[in-house]
Every structure is written in structure tokens, then in C-alpha cells.
Specification:
With 235 residues, the chain is mostly helical. The protein contains 13 helices and two strands; from the N terminus they run ααααββααααααααα.
């Protein structure tokens, strides 16, 4: 459990967060441990007794001191485990309710955005390559990026978008629909960060690709045109 906690933020830790990412792809040791809340709480109680974790009664969650958190990453994770990284990624993405796509700036997602930010930590960046682990999660990438943007974590959103776009271009090609989505998302990020020239370039590229794939009158093409219309002038 201590090894796993290094892949999450040290504030606002709760059982449902860990449970959300479980799937048949998750490591067996995690599935057997986290399948039941009683198992999780029994370990947490032990960690609380050893003063490694603190209980936050007002938010019904747990937290960890920064120094302990740094120790977990530096000592227990001297070698980063990609399986644990992608499990943390899945937990974060699965905790985003699809019905809340227009509400990701709400206070309920402020604590989750901290875990999204943790995914971009320098030590974890070697996991975020153009391999199958990324390409099988592009929908999740888009949700996490939007949540980071809505919670003003633009630098982290930009980093994820740029790596996801590079992965899409390498594996799927420049005219694939997923590549198009990442180009458009990166345009949004650049616009929000004030990188208006880059934003305009991404929007124009997305528009040209959308017209080629879907045609000029498709709803996805119209959405990109709207994006171009609302971006501030770069001149």
C-alpha cells in the first residue's frame, strides 16, 4: 500500500478512488487487496497507528505528510513500476463522471485534479510513452486533460496533451480521429495558456483534418470552427 501511495497525491486519499481503477488488467495483488473495503481499511488503520497516514474526518479521507510521501517515491519506488503508474492513471480517469463533462471545474473535482497533476511528476514521465498503455487510454487522457484545464493546471494538461499527440502520430498517423482530438485539445490548452500563435496553428490543423475526414458540414468540424472563433487574436 505504501508503494502504491507514491503514485497518488498525498492529500485527499479515499477508498472509492482506488476502487474505481480496478479491472482485469490491474495487478492481481491490487485486485485481491482492494476488492473489499474492509481489506483497505484494515491496512489504513495500521498505517494510521504507525503515524504514516492521518485521518481527515471532515472530508472522510486520508492524507500523508510531504516528507513521508517523498520517502515513498524515493526509497520504495527507486525503480518506477509502470503497472502502478497506469493503475493510478485509471483510478483518476475512472473517478471522472461522464455526465460531469461540463462541471469539471466544480469543487468536487478540485481534489481529484491533484491526483491528475501527480501523474505528470518528473519521475513518472518515462511511463508516458507511445506504447499500447497510452493508446488504449486515449479517451481517459482526454477526460483528465479537460479536468486539469478546468482546475487551472494548464502546464500539466499541456504536457499530457503533447505526449499523447506524439503517441497518436507515431502509432495512428496524422489523420486519425484520435490524433485530431489531441490536436484540438492541445489547441485549447495553448489558448488557455496564452500561447495564441500555437493555439491558432493547432486549431487550423484540426480544422483541415476534420474537413478531410468528416467533411465541412459535420458536427465535429463545426465544433472546431467554433473553437477557432473564440480563441483570442494572436496578432
Amino acid at each position: 500500500m505504501l508503494t502504491l501511495l507514491a503514485y497518488f497525491d498525498n492529500q485527499e486519499i479515499w477508498y472509492e478512488l482506488f476502487r474505481a481503477g480496478l479491472s482485469h488488467h490491474s495487478p492481481e495483488r491490487l485486485r485481491s487487496f482492494l476488492a473489499e473495503q474492509a481489506n483497505f481499511e484494515s491496512v489504513i488503520i495500521t498505517l494510521v497507528e504507525y503515524c504514516l497516514i492521518e485521518v481527515q474526518h471532515t472530508t472522510q479521507s486520508y492524507s500523508m505528510h510531504n516528507c513521508v510521501h517523498d520517502w515513498l517515491l524515493g526509497e520504495l519506488n527507486s525503480e518506477i513500476d509502470p503497472q502502478l503508474y497506469w493503475y493510478a492513471f485509471d483510478c483518476t480517469a475512472a473517478s471522472i463522471d461522464k455526465e460531469d463533462q461540463n462541471l469539471l471545474g466544480h469543487i468536487k473535482y478540485a481534489r481529484l485534479s491533484r491526483h491528475g497533476l501527480r501523474l505528470t511528476h518528473q519521475r513518472f514521465r518515462m511511463c508516458f510513452g507511445s506504447d499500447g498503455s497510452l493508446l488504449g487510454r486515449l479517451g481517459k487522457v482526454a477526460r483528465i486533460v479537460k479536468m486539469l484545464i478546468e482546475n487551472h493546471q494548464h502546464l500539466a494538461a499541456e504536457w499530457i496533451c503533447e505526449r499523447a499527440l506524439a503517441g497518436c502520430e507515431d502509432a495512428l498517423g496524422p489523420e486519425h480521429s484520435w490524433t485530431l482530438d489531441m490536436v484540438y485539445n492541445l489547441g485549447v490548452v495553448y489558448s488557455d495558456r496564452g500561447k495564441l500563435v500555437k493555439a491558432e496553428q493547432m486549431y487550423k490543423r484540426a480544422l483541415a483534418t476534420a474537413e478531410k475526414i468528416f467533411g465541412p458540414h459535420h458536427k465535429r468540424t463545426f465544433a472546431i470552427v467554433n473553437g477557432i472563433g473564440i480563441v483570442p487574436s494572436s496578432r
